[in-house]
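Severity: low
Component: inverse-folding endpoint
Summary: output formatting inconsistent between runs
Steps to reproduce: submit the following structure tokens with default settings.
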């Protein structure tokens, strides 16, 4: 709970904070905005079976500040949790209330999804904060899930940010040139151009595609896709992650 509290404490600047954590010293972040320029590309098209790539995980994460007060917290909180489950086709879930901390944790699992949600009242910030993590267990489009969750949050007048992450594996090691060439291939499939790159024990590159609508600015350049590659010596595999608009978790 302390970790969640620490994250939510920075919600007033949450988007900039999240981006800074992901881009580290590679780029400086100025703003987050949305461009409605075209239909979203299917993110998984970035990976092809001919590459020897196996997708291991598809995840959508959304965090939000909600216009809910303390007095009606539990009734309002249960409504949004159930609304998220409803749009994902789930009607059975476990709920755990914590009256002392004023929060609800919830979890549900289906053949298609594993869904965990947390909604909590911050006495310090006098606001209600929400986090939802959806792991997709089948071939459901991650962008479809992202847009469905955003639809619920829009109806709740929430201030939110959402991310997509896809993890994959490839057997054997890749040198820096092979990583660079592979990223170019991924970006080409998404119609993206490389904006910048950085390396701290792994290879990472950031790009921009007009096919992807959620966009951040890095310096004075737009960014909406990130790819990272690192070698797992123990398993002798390359671990590959793709994030939209960036990878917002550790890698």
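Observed output (run 2 of 3):
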């Amino acid at each position: 709970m302390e970790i969640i509290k620490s994250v939510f404490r920075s919600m007033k600047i949450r988007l900039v904070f999240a981006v800074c954590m992901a881009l580290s010293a590679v780029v400086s972040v100025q703003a987050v905005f949305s461009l409605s320029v075209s239909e979203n590309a299917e993110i998984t098209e970035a990976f092809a079976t001919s590459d020897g790539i196996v997708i291991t995980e598809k995840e959508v994460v959304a965090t939000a500040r909600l216009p809910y007060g303390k007095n009606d917290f539990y009734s309002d909180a249960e409504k949004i949790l159930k609304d998220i489950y409803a749009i994902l086709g789930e009607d059975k879930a476990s709920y755990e209330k914590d009256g002392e901390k004023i929060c609800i944790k919830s979890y549900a699992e289906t053949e298609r999804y594993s869904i965990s949600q947390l909604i909590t009242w911050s006495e310090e910030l006098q606001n209600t904060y929400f986090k939802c993590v959806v792991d997709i267990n089948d071939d459901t489009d991650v962008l479809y899930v992202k847009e469905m969750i955003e639809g619920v949050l829009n109806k709740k007048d929430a201030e939110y940010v959402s991310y997509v992450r896809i993890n994959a594996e490839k057997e054997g090691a890749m040198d820096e040139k092979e990583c660079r060439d592979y990223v170019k291939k991924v970006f080409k499939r998404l119609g993206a151009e490389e904006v910048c790159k950085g390396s701290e024990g792994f290879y990472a590159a950031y790009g921009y595609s007009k096919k992807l609508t959620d966009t951040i600015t890095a310096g004075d350049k737009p960014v909406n896709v990130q790819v990272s590659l690192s070698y797992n010596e123990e398993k002798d595999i390359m671990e590959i992650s793709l994030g939209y608009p960036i990878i917002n978790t550790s890698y």
